[in-house]
Amino acid sequence: MTEFLDLGPHAGFILACYAITLATIAGLFVWLVADRKSLTASLAKLEADGVRRRSGAASSGERG
């Protein structure tokens, strides 16, 4: 196990790459969660204003 953890003279570079990758993935996850919250709020406001989705059930004979 200690041989696996021995990263040699480039340990700093390797660990920095892992840290940057982890931070990037975490940032993307946080951004996606915040964007979903924003879009959900925007959709709720539009629906409250009477705007309906095109994917909703159309009334008889109505095409869009």
Counting H and I runs of at least 4 residues, what is the number of helices?
A: 2
Averaged pLDDT: 86
Low-pLDDT ranges? none
> How widely separated are the two ends?
64 Å
Strand content: under 5%
Protein topology:
Elements: H1 2-5, H2 11-48
What does this structure look like?
It is a single chain. This protein is 66% helix and 0% strand. The protein is built from 2 helices and no strands. The longest helix has 38 residues, at 11-48. The protein is rod-shaped and about 65 Å long. The termini are far apart.
Short description:
This protein has 64 residues and is an all-alpha fold. Helix content is 66%, strand content 0%. The longest helix has 38 residues, at 11-48.
Q: Which features does this protein show?
A:
single chain; 64 residues; rod-shaped
